[in-house]
Amino acid sequence: xxxxxxxxxxxxxxxxxxxxxxxxxxxxxxxxxxxxxxxxxxxxxxxxxxxxxxxxxxxxxxxxxxxxxxxxxxxxxxxxxxxxxxxxxxxxxxxxxxxxxxxxxxxxxxxxxxxxxxxxxxxxxxxxxxxxxxxxxxxxxxxxxxxxxxxxxxxxxxxxxxxxx
Length: 165
Fold this sequence. Notes:
The chain is of the alpha/beta class. The chain has helices spanning 3-20, 45-59, 70-73, 83-90, 134-163; strands at residues 29-32, 36-37, 66-67, 94-103, 106-115, 121-130. Mean pLDDT is 79; it is low at 12-22.
């Protein structure tokens, strides 16, 4: 293979990594806010705070990100809470917030990661699960979210290393 072909392959690989990176290099800290039930009459406080607590536990395993503890975010349970204002108060780079909807034996959890600095969305996910019990839903959703964010953090770290940043 010629030198120009190798350089072109590396350029294509760099572009692919760049387009997949979920976490910009300036995202080093994160707060997972209590989730909101979209239907006020069907609030489930165990899920609203239990989901973030499970996520916080999972996300603390990602070495590249400092995650605020549950005790720090517990006060942000108001339905109309501004996630960016909460992020500024907690002095973090990004906030993860979400919503919960139930219908029969199904539950939908929507999660979004926002850059506190400018409010831009960094990542979002929607997860539909059968609601057999609260713990299985929390475990399933937190596993999917933490896997996605960990992959993004690792890719971002790899990209910075390759670029000498």
